[in-house]
Amino acid sequence: MAESGFPQAVLFDLDGTLLDSAPDMLATANAMLAARDRAPISLAALRPVVSKGSRAMVSVAFPELGQVERDALVPEFLARYEALIGQHAVLFDGVAGMLDALDVAGCAWGIVTNKPEYLARLIVPQLGWEQRCKVLIGGDTLAQRKPHPLPLLAAAERMRIDPATCIYVGDDERDIVAANAAGMASVAALWGYRLDADDPLAWGAECMVERPAQLQRGDAWPTARA
Question: Which listed residue (13, 15, 20, 24) is catalytic?
């Protein structure tokens, strides 16, 4: 354990857990709609599916299209998002303090996201995390992505830690599924993006946390499995 009850290491999901990227995603979707002379969608419509990925967001923006047609729009969505990444996104309230507390406690932390790695690597420097973030694995870094445990296991290997000493924090069911399969304890981030039908109680996390600020305290973290 790190000092004051913090775990030895923590891995985080990115969008919906550390970063409120929904405003960037909304700008991307609405740029695509404007290019087609269509009315914009609202943040409320898009926000619940941001953690589900680009295909889910394209589906919200273009609900009348079939899956093949929507999939064909994903490259455009990613290109437009890359062009404006970070312009509107902000950290969730309390995330900066949480990461500061981890650093002070000597707890190493990193990011495992399903966002393509090249996009994640664009946002990390904007946040000033180049030296602080010990590992960054994207959805296309390896042969598998969450909910498969491989990205979490690879992150632990790169950090030279036992997966069982690490905690994973995410706002989507697949985050918790991946953590369980990797032998990591997990935290369900309730401040993130969820559909009304999502039930975090059923995900199997060690604990659920309402706000990032709660994780500024060592005693708020679950016990690692090792």
Answer: 13
